[in-house]
Fold:
Amino acid sequence: METPFIFTMHEGLPRQGPGSNACTRKAFSMLADLPARPELLDIGCGTGMQAIELARTCPGCRITATDVHQPYLDDLARSAASAGVDNRITTVRASMDDLPFPDASFDVLWAEGSIFIVGFQEGLASWRRLLRPGGYLCLTEAAWFTEHPSPEAAAFWNDCYPAITTVAANRATAKDAGYEVVATFPLPASAWWDDYYTPITKRLADLRSKVAGNPEAEALIEFEEREIAVYREHGSEYGYEFFILRKKE
Structure:
């Protein structure tokens, strides 16, 4: 089966979406009362920069990292070995809408830039069973930072993720889904550019000639370039918000 071009386009990048090690550490620092050897599940891990940073930040933790794209998991395994944390990171090829783990298996669920694939409300509901009592769900989600976005930004998000809403609305959804909202914070612009937009811009230039004549691939490249242009002009209107949520009984 041929690999979808969207995966190929993001292979070899530090991250497959906005994020940074500093934001990962900041979110983890907000977790309290974890056991000495917490079990973490990284959902939609991509190449796993955040999984490796979590392993560094929490020397006692054990991390299971899942993704549907095996080359991402292979990259993560190589990076984990280079970082000396491969003994505490296990990769599992699995879809985030069908995670093959028993109920109450994890102390922390981690999902940077991935919950949009199943939907914010759907992910909160379906993943909750995996958490032990008092466990945490830490995730990033696209959100409006204004009540009145520009027409250009609104049109872009209507095309790529119409479910985007405000931080306040997402907080309310999380509470309704059975979570305490411990904290939220926005990702800085550097979390979009340093390890995501800047590297992928270079990659798109290399890919364009290779996919000439492939309408689907060319359209994906054009859409990615549009995304970057919209963020450059309107990034103050929206962004990724980190949500630190705790399961309520």
Q: What stands out?
A: The longest helix spans residues 190-210. The chain has a mean pLDDT of 96.
